[in-house]
Amino acid sequence: MKIIELSDDPNKILEETDDDILSLFYFTASWCGPCKRIYPLLLDLENKMNENKKDEKKDVIFYKIDIDENEEYLETLDISSVPTFYLYEKKELLGETKGADIKKVGELILNNIYK
Questions:
Q1: Any idea what the CATH number is for the domain that residue 71 is in?
Q2: Which end is more exposed in the chain, N or C (fewer Cβ atoms within 10 Å of the end residue's Cβ)?
Q3: Which residues of the chain have pLDDT under 50?
Q4: Residue 11: which domain range?
């Protein structure tokens, strides 16, 4: 999972992403209990997807964004709670889900990976 640092610009990351790659932005905070519970499940999901790359039409890159270290993105991306997940293709928002439900995150990805 790639961690977006303060100096990174999510818009630039999305612009520079290849057409056959989806970007999952995981907004989190160090003090967030549900974020801590879902993080190992996200790593497991990412690992399973990497193992099965040949079966997928598109790759998915997972990005972890700590809202306390990247406050400027909260308003521009309308983040009101954590964990929040946004799935992008280039700069197009394909969908989002909020809360620590790994099934919803998986569905968000699967519903868009084969389009």
A1: 3.40.30.10
A2: C
A3: none
A4: 2-100
Q: Please provide the distance, in angstroms rounded to a whole number, between the alpha carbons at the two ends of the chain.
A: 23
Strand-pairing partners, residue 62, are 24
d(C-alpha 79, C-alpha 15), whole Å:
20
Predicted pLDDT at 69:
85
φ, ψ at 95 (rounded to 5°)? 175, 170
Q: What one-character DSSP code corresponds to residue 20? A: T
How far is Cα 17 from Cα 13, in angstroms, rounded to an integer? 6
Q: Which of 94, 101, 97 is nearest to 42 (CA)?
A: 101
Backbone dihedral angles phi then psi of residue 40, each to the nearest 5 degrees: -65, -30
Question: Looking at the 3D structure of the chain, how many domains does it have?
Answer: 1
pTM: 0.89
